[in-house]
Amino acid sequence: MLKGNCLLLFLCFLFVQSSPAPLHTLPLAQPHNRPGHDWPRSPAGMLAAGHRGGSGGFQRVKRGWVWNQFFVLEEYMGSDPQYVGKLHTDLDKGDSAVKYTLSGEGAGTIFTIDQTTGDIHALRSLDREEKPYYTLRAQAVDMDTNRPLEPESEFVIKVQDINDNEPKFLEGPYTASVPEMSPVGTYVTKVTATDADDPTYGNSARVVYSILHGQPYFSVDPKTGIIRTALPNMDREVKELYQVLIQAKDMGGQLGGLAGTTTINITLSDVNDNPPRFSKSIFHLRVPESSAVGSAVGRIKAHDLDIGKNAEVDYNIIPGDERGTFDITTNEHNQEGIIILRRPLDYETRKAYTFKVEASNAHLDSRFHSFGPFKDTATVKINILDVDEPPVFSKPSYTMNIHEDTQLGTTIGAVTAQDLDAGSSPVRYSIDWKSDLDSFFDIDPVTGTISISELLDRESIAQHNISVVATKMKQTYVIQVISAKDEDLPMSGQKFSFRSPQEGMNSKNFTIKDFGNNTAGVVTLRSGFRRRTQEIYHLPVFIEDSGLPVKNSTSTLTIRVCACNSEGALLTCNAEAIFLPVGLSTGALIAILVCIVILLVIVVLYVGVRRQKKKETLMTSKEDIRDNVIHYDDEGGGEEDTHAFDMGTLRNPKAIKENLFRRDVKPEAGSVPRPAATSQDSADIQNFITERLQEHDGDTSAPPYDSLATYAYEGEGSVAESLSSIESLNGETEEDYDYLNEWGPRFKTLAGIFGDRSESQTDVTSTASTTTTAENKH
Questions:
Q1: How far is CA 41 from the centre of its chain?
Q2: pLDDT tens string 107-126
Q3: Where in the cell is it found (predicted)?
Q4: 730 phi/psi in degrees, rounded to 5
Q5: Is the CA virtual torsion 274, 279, 284, 285 positive or negative?
């Protein structure tokens, strides 16, 4: 384009040089182009305009519009209007004689032009995704007359794109599925994100895909968005649903690009990669012998971890000793194996059947044959339950011959019937009264012998047809129904079997009868139980489950015989009723009570004597003060402990109250009491005590414990000499007792007495006594 413009200018220049008047060609529009981008441009057009020359005539002057696309940045957020470009014409000499006008899309509202300079500005922010370009028309006119100087011309303002839109997944969230156990790289689905930015400019719309959540199970192609498996052998039975988070980022995934995400829920579809498996290797079933042929007698099930048609199971009985007695079919709804009875059962002929059942998948997948055989086997054990059946006669009919006029009571024959059940109950016989309306015959109910009860006449009735009924007499009676509980819960339900360990040991009292429905009955084997003979019976019960391995336990059932009325209603079952009818007389009971009373009296007396002895031991005599000494098990601190026990307290009891101080705290020097000074006058007392202690220590008959001894000591004399009247002078002379006042306050009273009664003399004997505690240690 640049070459084209240059060639055009060159041609115009040559034309002007060759013409008689000079020509001026200037561009009207100066495009605001972006460097580095070759935007498509419109061809330049030539515009001719008349110009009045100096000669007064018209001269032909060529003018050219050189215009192109203008560009404006979208989402401009500046405060000033955004500059777009500039329009200019060759006729504009810069003297403000040319006015520029603008019209078209957005003129005046979105875009404005300076009439003098031709500068174009955008008045507001633009969005490329809303409108990518605007078409406008520009014209140069005379400023004064508004006369067009050149023809009107169109130009385009394109909105320049910026990265302001993130990629979006228009179809999300996605749902997809892939078969389990698929190899790595298996196609799952494809996701697509769209970016509203300009795909022809830069990387704003270049999207790159990545996986944010879902590794290491799946991967995504960064360019195409195709999701594939990234981990082999993903097992649906382990995890079925996966949630994958995919991100689409523009700018080629570079830093600063905008991103959008979507979620893909991927489900692993099932394939037949698991064989059927029985929950246990042995199934125990119980079938009554009276079950109808063609009926369902049991159910077993093999579990397949797959679903749908991959979990369909076929059951087959492996030929064995069942001899076609049973068959098995598949329940299409729950895939259980239903065991069907094909032949009649007879408990007396065969009591149990054992056979194997094979379970296999109906639809196999050849890709997984290496996983092993897709089948499993289990053993089925069927125990036939005995059903109470009527007795069977030894022959279907009996023929007996007898002469007429035979004597009444004559035995003419006998019938025999037998109970074929396991219990072999006794049989009782009777004649059906409808077959013998005239009662010609009689039958023994126990032996079955038939005798004549009426005279027979051949001429009247030559042949008699009678029917004999054989009935089982069951002596057993169900007194209690028991059941069991197991903490385990097998998939096929709880099944228990009950029996008595005493079976086969000729038990004559009670037994256990299994009803085949997880309950059993306690059955009596005889009648005539008496409380006086035996009230308590213990019956062991053996219980076994049908799990694998088989668990069992034995419990003991306690049976008490209770009192009943004639109709069988319970009267009492209290324990005290046992001891009332023991046969003791009234005298014996009284003797027992008397003995009990005597024992109680003896116990009371014994306790009283022991208490009295204990009191006398504490104090046998009020005068023996040594027994009142209280002994404490308090050990002192040894010889070095001088504060453990103060002997001075015994000598002066007042010191206990007057001189109290704590021994656990070191006392102050001023607070410690000082020992009283020993008076010289008490030396004789100390000598007296010392002599007595020496005598006591040398006494071998003294008791080996501490004792309290009391001594009376009168003293050796007094400074006042003897006051006894025996040693007083005989005579009637008056004695002066004033010296008593000089002896101190102790003799003040005595001085007062003798001072008032000077005529009489009274013998006063002064005695001094002291009491001390002698400690004897042996």
A1: 77
A2: 889 999 998 888 999 988 88
A3: Cell junction, Adherens junction; Cell membrane
A4: -80, 130
A5: negative
Q: How far is CA 420 from CA 346, 347, 392, in A?
A: 10, 9, 7
Q: Is 770 left (phi over 0), alpha (psi -120 to 50) or beta?
A: beta
Cα pseudo-dihedral 391, 395, 401, 406, rounded to 10: -10
Tokens of 258: 């905008």
Rounded distance between C-alpha atoms, residue 543 and residue 482, angstroms: 11
- For the chain, the distance separating the N- and C-terminal CA atoms, rounded to the nearest angstrom, is 145
Q: How many angstroms separate the Cα of 762 from the Cα of each of 43, 179, 754? A: 176, 143, 8
Is-contact 392 427, C-beta < 8 A?
A: no
pLDDT digits (tens, 9 = 90+) for 725-764: 555 545 445 566 777 777 877 787 887 777 765 544 444 3
Cβ neighbourhood burial of 482 (10 Å; 0-12, 13-18, 19+): middle
Q: In what helix (H) or strand (E) does residue 209 lie, and over which residues does it extend?
A: strand 208-213
- Classify residue 281 by its DSSP letter: S
**134 forms bridges with which residues in the sheet?**
157
Entry pTM: 0.44
CA dist 440 and 422 (Å) reads: 36
For 443, the enclosing helix (H) or strand (E) is strand 441-443
Sheet bearing 441-443, strands edge to edge:
411-414, 449-452, 441-443
Q: Count Cβ atoms below 10 Å from residue 305 Cβ, excluding itself.
A: 16
